[in-house]
């Protein structure tokens, strides 16, 4: 087994790290306070080629490998987890749904190109007020009318929702309820009958844009169907496997960023006549966190390589999502404690990272759902 990153992967990692540290970090406290989405910075990431790393050049991407994308997402999330999830949803979920579909290659390229090139934002619309972990409880319905489908219903907690240009929307159909009738459509912003709702006021990932979506007799041409009735649920679940690897990278990045802030602080902060890093209890707790981060990193990279090399990755993605996001919550909470009163102050960043970490244990399949997936595989 080779645990070394390739030169191309190291190059992608460095580009993302430099951008995060030199650009994203500048106004991050302001963005957290105002909940402002920095579209200009996302557009800059697109011009740098970060958004479409794992997609073919002919589809607007960079033709890179999946692990290059994951290490880039990890670096972005060390500094700005809000940008990390924006990046992940466009790349892993919107583009992932199109790539995983049965559409012909030319149509995939048409739908993916604007988002993979970084010129547009994409969203994944599956969750509803009564269909969260139970995605099969989808009530948003699409009814066939000639060569169009008429969509009615709503979606909630849609990351990138207020700012996206294109959406993959999962619906039930008039053919059958639940998974048997689930379909998927590509819906552009501005489609008549489609409304992007008011932004949610979130605890963490404050500068990521999250909202509800509303469909009121929204007419979508047959041409925009991504998955026909009966194939939508499987497509959503397969795409979420990839999305979970993205969220795992976000979680790992948050943990690493908070750990490094605490490490540096502990070498500088003195109490009882010596740096607090010399206090054995604190030092040992930091070692435990370092080991947890390292374990999570290898589980993440294993999942990314499984996907990259065409191996089954449902289980490895669930494991990576579980351990990386639990690490994010544990490490950030400990980092706040290590900084004491300063940890509670916004200018030290770890309290923001702790708020950002919590949602990683919830979205794209809560960690309880990951355990449900894994226990089902364990006892087959």
Structural commentary:
With 380 residues, the protein is of the alpha+beta class. 51% of the residues lie in helices and 16% in strands. The chain has 11 helices and 10 strands. The strands form 2 sheets. Strands 1, 2, 3, 4, 5, 6, 7 and 8 form an 8-stranded mixed sheet that branches. It has a two-stranded antiparallel sheet with strand order 9-10. Helix 4 runs antiparallel to helix 5 (81-100), helix 9 runs antiparallel to helix 10 (350-360) and helix 9 packs across helix 11. It is globular and about 80 Å long. The model has no long low-confidence stretch (mean pLDDT 96).
List keywords for this structure.
alpha+beta; two-stranded antiparallel sheet; 11 helices; 10 strands; 16% strand
Q: Which percent range fits the helix content? A: 40-55%
- Give the overall form: globular
Number of DSSP strands?
A: 10
Q: From the structure provided, what is the oligomeric state, counting identical versus distinct chains?
A: single chain
Number of helices: 11
Please mark out the parts with pLDDT under 50 across 5 or more consecutive residues, or reply none: none
What's the SSE blueprint?
Elements lengths: L6 H18 L3 H7 L4 H10 L17 H14 L1 H20 L4 H12 L5 E4 L15 E5 L2 E12 L6 E8 L9 E6 L5 E6 L10 E12 L3 E3 L4 H37 L1 E2 L2 E2 L4 H29 L5 H25 L11 H11 L6 H12 L2
Parallel strand pairs: 1-4, 2-4
Antiparallel strand pairs: 2-3, 3-7, 4-5, 5-8, 6-7, 9-10
Helix pairs in contact: 1-4, 4-5, 4-7, 5-6, 5-7, 7-8, 7-9, 7-10, 8-9, 9-10, 9-11
